[in-house]
Amino acid sequence: MPSHRMPSEADIISTVEFNHTGELLATGDKGGRVVIFQREPESKNAPHSQGEYDVYSTFQSHEPEFDYLKSLEIEEKINKIKWLPQQNAAHSLLSTNDKTIKLWKITERDKRPEGYNLKDEEGKLKDLSTVTSLQVPVLKPMDLMVEVSPRRVFANGHTYHINSISVNSDCETYMSADDLRINLWHLAITDRSFNIVDIKPANMEDLTEVITASEFHPHHCNLFVYSSSKGSLRLCDMRAAALCDKHSKLFEEPEDPSNRSFFSEIISSVSDVKFSHSGRYMLTRDYLTVKVWDLNMEARPIETYQVHDYLRSKLCSLYENDCIFDKFECAWNGSDSVIMTGAYNNFFRMFDRNTKRDVTLEASRESSKPRAVLKPRRVCVGGKRRRDDISVDSLDFTKKILHTAWHPAENIIAIAATNNLYIFQDKVNSDMH
Amino acid sequence: MMLSKGLKRKREEEEEEEKEALAVDTWWLDPGHPAVAQAPPAVASSSLFDLSVLKLHHSLRQSEPDLRHLVLVVNTLRRIQASMAPTAALPPVPSPPTAPGIADNLLASSDAALSASMASLLEDLSHIEGLSQAPQPLVDEGPPGRPTGGAPPSLGALDLLGPATGCLLDDGLEGLFEDIDTSMYDSELWAPASEGHKSSPEDGPGKEEAPELDEAELDYLMDVLVGTQALERPPGPGR
């Protein structure tokens, strides 16, 4: 983010997403802007830069809208960005706010025609009497210009707030999910969508559960999963029925009776679900844990990792200040061996599934200088406290790492800390504010 | 790899005082607090109950409530209420605290009022979203009601949620309007002047609707716009 601008609420980053090669990184913010970063090719002239990310393009994706019928303002905050697989020289992405999804095309222009017959260099019409011969305009190189244009607007598909979008592996369709419904769209058709999940009860008084996240399977274009506020996952097969209200598989872990409290349901609410790159597993995030599920086993997750179990005794306070409703995202690394998620105090956590080791790191200016190695952090709950440990009661709950992304192939991660973006790379850690 | 082994350092004694960064008043969890010391966990539950009711009310007051937040709070409220009921299957609630009058009133009235307010608040919600089948009568809202007689202040929060609204037409409202020609809505009615239509009944006494459109028609129009109703023609230029 430019350092001369005072940080405002509009700059709060609301989503982060690498494209399929990792060359581009898109962020969306509360003010409806999208900023795309591009990784510089590693050059022998400047070996220290080692493929850093620089701003590539910035554009206003969504504007605040006023719904006159319901007298409601529709927030311009970008909830999610998803890249389309690249099919030609242009890049495309979908960005969505609460109600409307837009398809943006990003193209580069590095040549421009020169030598027009009727116009001069500034574009003014020439005095025709001075034109004595004809010339053919030629394309000359120019400074790279990145142009972004909206190609499709998918509006009026959702009554409730959109929480997820996911592009199908068929590259032709995508789905969008709100609290109660999931729609399937064709990327080329904007005036209609196909409703594939509807959990709205006939009587709204009976509403007890909402959809919290959804994603297409990375390889099987007929499969998708959606998570609920009650902590369940439903895998659906679009070949089985047109309306996928009936799931193919239901993944649910029984409540642990020893940990039962008034807040059991709230902390079991799944805030994010991600298929592994292999397509064999799913990763879910609830308030206190991340869980790995095997698609072949519905009864319970195969792995559970504690993100910040020290908060379990503080749930009442976190309920009062609404922190218990925070929605954290989770991410796989390229080889599905490490998973990552954010926490409070600008901490984020990584879990190695093979070694079972985990680490807590911090994304902040104070604790990380460019190209310095990140120092692991520790939260102490009581007892002997080492220097540099943070005590639970000192955690800053306003500093939440809700959005994180992992490069599809390399050990590069993007961490959104409120209005700052941090990009960490393996071995050579570079950060950007 | 990012997972470095961590720096070795000598164990040192605890140096600083732990700071209270989580600035939340949690007096009801503090065993040393006089109110808590006197009262068994039943008081803790009722404070949690009040907190949840306030959260619910606050959530509903949003122009467009966060449905997930709302549903989670409602479900939590139901759990709390169930644990406060004398016949609850959950761990038994100890005998009423030292202010039995207030607690009894709260428990007795909370059951009836809570069910009623649950019904009404979820009805409010579905109305706000514009897909409700039930017309929401704005006219009989009036100012937030205060119970007559010396009822404890905590009941006021429940009252603010509004009275239970009976649904004259539980379903099939759309059926009444099947024959409406949508062309009557493709007009300047949709200009900013229409923003006088307040959808939230909480915002005070009901306002007069614009003469051209009434409540049920607005609901139908919402359905048309979001595609749950079949369109007779493609969406107009206003969208």
From TrEMBL, chain A:
PROSITE patterns: PR55_1, PR55_2. SUPFAM superfamilies: WD40 repeat-like. GO terms for cellular component: protein phosphatase type 2A complex. It comes from the Eukaryota. The keyword Cytoplasm does not apply. InterPro entries: PP2A_PR55, PP2A_PR55_CS, WD40/YVTN_repeat-like_dom_sf, WD40_repeat_dom_sf, WD40_rpt. Keywords: Repeat, WD repeat. One of its GO terms (molecular function) is protein phosphatase regulator activity. SMART domains: WD40 (SM00320). Belongs to the phosphatase 2A regulatory subunit B family. This is Serine/threonine-protein phosphatase 2A 55 kDa regulatory subunit B. It comes from Delphinapterus leucas (Beluga whale). The gene is PPP2R2C.
TrEMBL record, chain B:
InterPro entries: E2F-SERTA_domain_protein, SERTA_dom. Pfam families: SERTA (PF06031). It comes from the Eukaryota. This is SERTA domain-containing protein 1. Residues 195-210 have a biased composition (Basic and acidic residues). Residues 1-23, 134-157, 193-214 are annotated as: Disordered. Signal peptide: none annotated. Residues 41-88 form the SERTA domain. One of its GO terms (cellular component) is nucleus.
